[in-house]
Amino acid sequence: MENINISHIIRLIIDNKRRFVINGIIVFVIACAYILCIPRSYRASINLAPETEVSSGLNTLSNIASTFGFDINAGQSSDAISPELYPDLFKSNDFLVKLLGIQVYSEKAGREVDYFTYLSQYQDHAPWEPIVQKIKRLFKRPKKRITIPATNDGAQEETGINPFYLTEQEYFAVEALKSNIKCSTDKKTGVISIVVEDQSPYVCACMADSARVYLQKFITDYRTNKARIDVDYYKLLCEQAEKEYKQALNEYSVYTDSHSGNLRQSYQAKTDELENNVQARLSTLVSIRQQLITAEAKVQEKTPAFTILQGASVPNKASGPKRMIFVAFMLLLSCIGTFLWLVRNKFKESLGLSTFERT
């Protein structure tokens, strides 16, 4: 049986301590120079609990299943877009392009700019990144830009960016936004967590709160979409019914005024007909107005309530990079690499004999 001779290893390290120190100093200087060039980033998070539509008879079974990490509410919910799909929303260009139009304060610019301009022009980069980008462009075939007609998408109306066809600069901004914003949903509690990382503590807090607002708006618009369509439809019917009622009332008034004092039977029959028409139009108008009120109440009923469990706040400390941990890790790798290199040389010197003694 072979055992490692610890004393021989310690002696090997002591005999070559100068090499360990020199390699450690070199690695320390390189690691510090590298990590100091990496811009610092800050992180802000927000936790949001949305209201879900679930059958009340499943509450007990849902609570039991949630303790085991399962969510049976998603299958029973009336929503086609369940909370588990909200993280996928933050990967959609249509949704992210809207976030690029948010106004944030840039310390470099000294003024408020939209987030797209902030990502494109006012970000700190490592010194070697522009060089790498120029080298990549040398080997990249330029694409011919084609003209795409404008769409009626809300994202393009707000930001001027077409999510269907992004330019190269817009594409990199969207990809940077995807890496900066993370969204997750807890299956047990249904709590939505939004985490934003950015170089500016104020910007990351502002974007976290704005992402929360846009997510709430998306959920609200989705759940109330059918009800709002019904409201618009009943408003159109109400306007038409009110117009017909006023027209019938005006016709009745004109006829009765022009035939005042006429006692003929034909006049009385015509008057009764016009009066009945006015009453019918009025009944229709009242009925449609009641349906309109019911539809508007349905919108309020479908509007979900949101509970902010943890609001966004400006962070005081940077979240990364962890400079001390990185340098310590690199020094550890330096020691391990130096030791393995020494052992390798010993193997060569002894022509394959181990530096460890047999006991």
Number of domains: 3
CATH topology heading of the largest domain: Bacterial polysaccharide co-polymerase-like
Q: Cα distance, first to last residue?
A: 8 Å
Q: In the CATH classification, which architecture of the largest domain applies?
A: 2-Layer Sandwich
Radius of gyration: 36 Å
Model regions low in confidence, pLDDT < 50 over at least 5 residues: 55-59, 351-359
Q: Could you spell the SSE succession in H and E letters?
A: HHEHHHHEEHHHHEEHHHEH
Helix content: 55-70%
Range of strand content: 5-15%
Secondary-structure content class: alpha+beta
Count up the helices. Answer: 14
Walk me through this protein's architecture:
This protein has helices at residues 6-15, 17-37, 59-66, 73-76, 86-89, 93-99, 115-121, 129-138, 154-159, 168-180, 201-223, 225-258, 265-302, 323-349; strands at 42-50, 103-106, 111-114, 181-185, 192-198, 306-310. It folds into 3 domains: 6-36 and 324-349, no CATH class; 42-223 and 310-317, Bacterial polysaccharide co-polymerase-like (2-Layer Sandwich); 227-300. A hairpin with a 4-residue loop joins strand 2 (103-106) and strand 3. It is 59% helix and 9% strand. By secondary structure, the protein is of the alpha+beta class. The strands form 2 sheets. A 4-stranded antiparallel beta sheet has the order 4-5-1-6. A two-stranded antiparallel ribbon has the order 2-3. It is built from 14 helices and 6 strands.
